[in-house]
Inverse folding.
């Protein structure tokens, strides 16, 4: 079975779900690729909140947004995704259409600075509070790097403990034969009656 590009899969799915005016979060801005993608989908009236603990990542994201003339559609915040809620305007709580997590380390950056299970699980709990009744949480995990397997296992366990009456959970492997390959956890809120 050929390897699946999970980034392409995420972008394809979100292309069908996001619209002008939506508010979304890139919980791990990194080099800005997802932030720019989200900004394109929600422009001209929507907003992307982009979080990263590394100023270097936000500098790269800002440059990418400027290059694509999308900077006015994004707010970049140098903070842990575990603290997202304190940076999100209260009117957006329960209104966020999608929250994206691309875990691991900054490509091209310091590989010792990684997302960690504890802060990621805290951020996921916050994301549940922030998403809309039909919102999405996308978590792209990388078990192949140092610390990645532990974080991936914790995220998997967290997903398994979600109430299936409130959330639909999909686990998608980029390569089922390779335990080091990336894994996507796709969570969709189920609208309540």
């Amino acid at each position: 079975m050929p390897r699946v590009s999970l980034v392409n899969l995420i972008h394809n799915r979100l292309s069908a779900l996001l619209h002008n005016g939506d508010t979304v979060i890139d919980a791990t801005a990194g080099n800005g690729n997802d932030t720019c993608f989200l900004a394109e989908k929600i422009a001209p009236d929507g907003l992307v909140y982009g979080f990263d603990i590394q100023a270097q990542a936000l500098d790269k994201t800002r440059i990418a947004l400027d290059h694509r003339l999308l900077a006015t559609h994004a707010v970049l915040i140098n903070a842990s995704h575990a603290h997202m809620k304190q940076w999100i305007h209260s009117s957006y709580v329960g209104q966020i259409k999608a929250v994206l997590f691309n875990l691991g380390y900054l490509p091209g950056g310091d590989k010792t600075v990684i997302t960690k299970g504890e802060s990621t699980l805290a951020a996921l709990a916050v994301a549940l509070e922030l998403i809309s009744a039909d919102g999405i949480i996308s978590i792209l995990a990388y078990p192949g790097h140092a610390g990645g397997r532990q974080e991936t296992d914790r995220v998997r366990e967290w997903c398994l403990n979600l109430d299936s009456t409130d959330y639909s959970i999909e686990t998608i492997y980029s390569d089922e034969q390779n335990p080091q390959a990336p894994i996507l956890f796709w969570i969709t809120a189920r609208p309540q009656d």
User: Anything to note?
Assistant: Residues 10 and 105 are 19 Å apart (CA to CA). The beta strands are 23-26, 47-52, 74-78, 96-102, 131-141, 167-173, 183-189. The radius of gyration is 16 Å. The chain has six helices and seven strands.
